[in-house]
Task: structure prediction
Amino acid sequence: MFDLQNWTTALHEWMLGILPEWAAILIESVLVALIIITLYAVFAIVLIYLERKICAFFQCRLGPNRVGKWGLLQVFSDVFKMLQKEIIRMRKSDRFLHDLAPYLVVTASMLTFACLPWNKGGHIIDFNIGIFFMLAVSSIGVVGILLAGLGSNSKYPMIGAMRAGAQLISYEISIGLTMLTMVALTGTMQISEIVQQQYDNGWNIIRGHIPALIAFIVYLIAGNAECNRGPFDLPEGESELTAGYHTEYSGMHFGYYYLAEYLNLFIAAGIASTIFLGGWAPLHIAGLDGFNGVMDLIPGFVWFVGKTFFVVLLLMWERWTFPRLRIDHILSLEWKYLMPISLFNLLLMALVVVLGLGININ
Amino acid sequence: MEETIQNKPVKPQAEAAAAPAKPAVVPEAVPAENLVVSTLVEPEKLHGEMLRLKNEEGMDFLELITGEDWGEEGLGCVYNLWSTTTGKRAYIKAVAKDRENPFLPTVSDLWDIANIYEREVFDFYGIRFLGHPDMRRVFLREDWVGYPMRKDDKPEEQNDLRMNNFVYADKTTQYDCDADGQVHETEHIVFSPEDYVVNIGPQHPSTHGVLHFRVALEGERIKKIDPILGYIHRGIEKLNESYTYPQTLALTDRMDYLGAMQSRHALCMAIEKAAGIEVSERVQYVRTIMDELQRIDSHILFFSCLCQDMGATTAFLYGFRDRERVLDIFEETCGGRLILNYNMIGGLAHDIHPDFQKHVKAFIPYMRKNIKEYYDIFINNVIARNRLIGVGVLSKEDVISGGCTGPTGRASGWSNDVRKHAPYATYDKVEFSEVLRTEGDSYARLLNRMDEIEQSLHIIEQLVDNIPEGTYQTKTKPIIKLPEGTYYSAVEGSRGEFGVFVESKGDKSPYRMHYRSTGLPLVAIMDKACRDELIADMMAINGTLDYVVPDIDR
Result:
């Protein structure tokens, strides 16, 4: 299996040879930051293009097809346009909060993005309470949305932000519980360790069979709700609130929300593929050593990105099929159905682990 | 369709006063089928007479109030009443003689719909209705000077181009008359400073046009809705007063753009019947088919827009895919897709395209197949059902009092289909059923329209192969003049009864032409339908009420 750790260690040692340690670490940090931002931008562009094309195919149309071959340059030109737009500031808005909010949202999403295990040895933030850290930083986004509503001093954003607050905080419970379920299965919160275990023992969704499958489905629903995407896009609620909490934003400030929305989709899918579908771990079938050997030849990041895009596709399918829920339905779905199911599921998983009922391919 | 002409007597207006009904003065010529013979009622007795008609003669439906300016005689109104139980019609006329300070008693306590009709009359003619709780302008700006539909009004001279914005008043006035004839003003509050008022519109994704609602919220719950109309009012009725009859045709397509065929059909029918022009059987068949195609077009778009409002964008485009087929059929024969310009006085603009029948016949099975997809993707979806069932319930009394005709009224159990109650064109020759439901909620309104698509397909199926040979255009005189009198014709539009009220003084242009808008009652009832629902439900409700704004703002 291709291990990125070897390369990074080699790079680190080479730099230590020509630079003092502090300078080496500084340069490495800058490099990592550049890589994250580049990846972030690249994936945003890919996702936006993908969403536009996929939704078009769902809807019996062609999607963007004028700018570049198959509309490939459409997203670039959109980004370019957005970069040129003036950032309009409302006279009666709270300037500080209004300007701060989009950065909070983007920061939260970038921090979570950095937690994803791209490859064996290819994780950026990785320590023993990785899952906790991920949950914590992803919640900063809610603050950004609430501040957007508050700082805009306008009615639609205010209602949108109130909805977002209620919805995101509710659905975090389900997300937390499903993650906890999987942590109970793996016995660790360290993300690299979770994936390594799945490499050794088979993907969690197979290992944890019934409770893991339930958790996966709950996660898909709650994950979509966390991303504010249809059918849970009430905080934006286009038809009633025009654009919800980001109604008063323009230019790149709006762009940040737009970017964060797509990246959050990718992150939600990435987390799902990490904790359920084995992250970078290739598909192994017990007994078929030749097959497993071939699978191991495919690099880990291809597996990870492939699985993530598969989940992205599932989430897009969900988004483009269902009508939007209403705020009371959305909350009763969480508090009356998903949360009790997740709690029960956690218990079930605990039983599976205690009684050793999990499937282990080795 | 006006075979229900009232046997109410005509009274010479001079001796109108308190005199009881006398036999009508029989005119020499046979009166036109749609001639309106109205009873003049003294203003003081108007309210009592309307109450009597409503309670004793079962005139439960106030179809229309037409404001009029009769010059020397004064300003006044014609009230169209229709009993949906017995099918009888009554036309009541009331005149306010004082042009400076015209007052008439309100009937808004008897029919909810009178509220907005009387505001419209006030807006254009300046007649103040005594006892009306909300005497504000409805279409024009609140700072407008003058009453533009009066024959002597000079809007350009009295109103400069205003460059300032204005704030909508949160107060409204009620005028009352006490025993000794003194008029008092009472102020009512529309929105108090404590209300959290959100503007839905005039630029908003789900108002389906330039419509403005001021919505008072309590959290997400709606406390009150105040519609503000007139953003795209073009004064079509005023324009018509200076147009010849053939010229007036051009504007009906531009009102309800999803009922262009039907609106123009109504206008042509009103003029043809009044002028005694016979149209051929072929024309009647084609008009019926076109009306039904238009209805399908409108109901598909209704489904699409509702899905869009509810966030189901895929279902939205499914509707557009199918509507395209209808528009192609229109384009082939009429040349237009939205503005069709097809019906003419005495016939049609051109004969149907040679491929018309073939394409229509291909469309029928295509649509029947695709409508199942609508059920699969949206109508039977659990989220859609949760959001529509039991939302925005209107009782049968509400819709009759609010004048909500069409599928909206029929979803509440009110049988009001003009095609059934007063058949016109070839509707008496085809077999179809009036779709009725009793739930009165948004879901019933949705299902009703889906069922009506099927009924329309059924109607077209029966007619399309049997279009008789004949001329598509009857020769008319170069200048069409209607004999003096008042005429009213109505058709079943896509979203309710569309009526044309024409008053002629025998000239080549109408003295007054008023349309019964199908959308105005639907907007007027929004407040009642949305009370205590969530703001997200407001989108479901205004989606299922299905109004078209240019038809409200004529």
Observations:
- Residues 1-27 of chain B have pLDDT under 50 and may be disordered.
